[in-house]
């Protein structure tokens, strides 16, 4: 027979009475509600965990005192809910809520919730997540500092050809000569070849032949024996070739290598062994050579400034990198790539680029190539403080000589002459602020500028 009227509550109360002494001594919080969802019992741990006074809860509807509790749902569905995470006051608890049924009839007479305080655990977990996020960010910053991220190739056909040649070069040991203007990515390509080949776990040693004084270059490259020259270490020193053994040596600015040293380099390339300065023993080496230059090396050969035989030795695989102005279609890709890389390095959010600023960036010719683009973006990221790169965040020289193109692109229709003039003046005032400077930049006397400001009703 089923329980009727007040009977269910009575049965439930009797059940509770018989075990209350136990319930009050358990560490977990316990709440028992009748089938109407009214709190019939709460143990002492409940008060400690939730901070809610037991006397203020008893007899109240669960939905009123703990709106997030799942007790009403369990009473409604008759189905248990296990491992439910809820927030009560400022504490986090995890509860198991089970319907209570009358033994004989199986009729639902209430529900019991047993819960555990997991606030400390949650706090620790949140700290852990934050720490993990920080680690991820730092490791990203670190990897961009180490420069070991993949280079971008882009859609430009010449760049695609250069990288596919680099990939082929990675699988063989032939010498490589990379040509291209300064900042076009010659070292990036050299590293790419090294990283994609079997030598990737061995050293990659980069030498800027133009930056080392002529009299030191030989001993830097090939090392020296004890007492080889005044000032030499008494223990001798291995050179960069020896340091690169098993790996790759990148000889940047090879065009700057002094003519007499070119003969020695040629011998090293042919014989695959070096002799330290002041030494008598030959040292066998296994070094892959990649050379690069931003000079017209063929012209240098013709002018006898670079040895022809060395040129042919180095020029087994030739990779030519086009200047950035010849691959403008890839500029948006580069801009996005560097903003990503630089903002993570600087610990900032990746900014948006305002359309006027983007037009300026896309219109510029970048004589310093990718290095210059990277510098411009890094600079603008440092200046920017509102998450959006605007014309003001870009260097002034980008604006000079670019105004007409910029205006042209800005307008969808062909503008009237006075509109161009008005807009150029407005834009210049906005950017340079100072009228003397604006007059100077626009190449007009100050009096003319003032007259035009008045004529066009420009507010400044
Ligand atoms: N394809 C690319 N992907 C990503 N970054 C690039 C790429 N090309 C160039 N860069 C970046 O541009 C900058 C200049 O590149 P790199 O030093 O390789 O140029 P370079 O041609 O060797 O210059 P230099 O002749 O002055 O030595 C570097 O910061 C590099 O990370």
UniProtKB/TrEMBL annotation:
TM region(s), chain numbering: none
GO molecular function: ATP binding; sequence-specific DNA binding
Gene that this sequence comes from: zraR_3
Biological process, per Gene Ontology: regulation of DNA-templated transcription
Domain of life assignment: Bacteria
Upper lineage: Bacteria, Bacillati, Bacillota, Clostridia, Thermosediminibacterales
Keyword line: ATP-binding, DNA-binding, Nucleotide-binding, Transcription, Transcription regulation
Any one Pfam family match given in the protein's UniProt record, by short name: HTH_8
UniProt-listed PANTHER family: C4-DICARBOXYLATE TRANSPORT TRANSCRIPTIONAL REGULATORY PROTEIN DCTD, TRANSCRIPTIONAL REGULATORY PROTEIN
Domain Sigma-54 factor interaction: 152-382
Protein name: Transcriptional regulatory protein ZraR
Positions in coiled-coil regions: none
Record-linked CDD domains: AAA, PAS
Organism expressing this protein natively: Fervidicola ferrireducens
RNA-binding among keywords: no
Domain (PAS): residue spans on this chain: 15-60
Keyword Electron transport included in the entry's annotation: no
């Amino acid at each position: 027979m089923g329980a009727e009227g007040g009977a269910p509550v009575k049965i439930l109360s009797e059940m509770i009475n018989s075990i209350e002494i136990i319930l009050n001594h358990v560490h977990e919080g316990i709440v028992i509600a009748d089938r109407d969802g009214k709190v019939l019992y709460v143990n002492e741990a409940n008060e400690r965990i939730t901070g809610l006074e037991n006397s203020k809860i008893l007899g109240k509807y669960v939905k009123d005192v703990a709106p997030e509790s799942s007790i009403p749902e369990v009473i409604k569905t008759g189905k248990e809910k296990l491992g439910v995470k809820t927030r009560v006051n400022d504490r986090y608890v995890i509860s198991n809520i089970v319907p209570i049924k009358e033994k004989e009839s199986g009729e639902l007479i209430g529900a019991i919730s047993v819960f555990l305080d997991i606030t400390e655990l949650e706090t620790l977990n949140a700290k852990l997540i934050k720490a993990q996020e920080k680690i991820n960010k730092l490791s990203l910053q670190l990897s961009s500092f180490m420069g070991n991220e993949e280079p971008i190739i882009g859609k430009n056909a010449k760049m695609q050809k250069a990288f596919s040649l680099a990939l082929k070069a990675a699988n063989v040991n032939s010498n490589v000569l990379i040509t291209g203007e300064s900042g076009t990515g010659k070292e990036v390509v050299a590293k790419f070849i090294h990283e994609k080949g079997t030598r990737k776990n061995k050293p990659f040693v980069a030498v800027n032949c133009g930056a080392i004084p002529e009299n030191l270059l030989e001993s830097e490259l090939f090392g020296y024996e004890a007492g080889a020259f005044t000032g030499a270490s008494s223990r001798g020193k291995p050179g960069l070739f020896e340091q690169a053994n098993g790996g790759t040596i990148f000889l940047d600015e090879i065009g700057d290598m002094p003519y007499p040293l070119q003969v020695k380099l040629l011998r090293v390339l042919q014989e695959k062994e070096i002799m330290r300065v002041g030494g008598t023993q030959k040292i066998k080496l296994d070094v892959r050579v990649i050379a690069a230059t931003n000079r017209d090396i063929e012209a240098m050969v013709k002018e006898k400034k670079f040895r022809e035989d060395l040129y042919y030795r180095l020029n087994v695989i030739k990779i030519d990198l086009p200047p950035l102005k010849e691959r403008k279609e890839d500029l948006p890709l580069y801009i996005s790539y560097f903003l990503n890389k630089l903002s993570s390095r600087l610990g900032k959010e990746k900014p948006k680029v305002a359309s006027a600023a983007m037009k300026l960036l896309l219109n510029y010719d970048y004589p310093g190539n990718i290095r210059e683009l990277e510098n411009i973006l890094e600079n603008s990221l440092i200046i920017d403080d509102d998450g959006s790169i605007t014309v003001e965040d870009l260097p002034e020289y980008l604006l000079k000589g670019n105004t007409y193109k910029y205006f042209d692109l800005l307008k969808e229709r062909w503008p009237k002459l006075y509109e161009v003039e008005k807009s150029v003046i407005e834009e210049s005032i906005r950017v340079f602020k100072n009228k003397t400077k604006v007059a100077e930049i626009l190449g007009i006397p100050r009096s003319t500028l003032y007259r035009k400001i008045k004529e066009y009703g420009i507010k400044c």
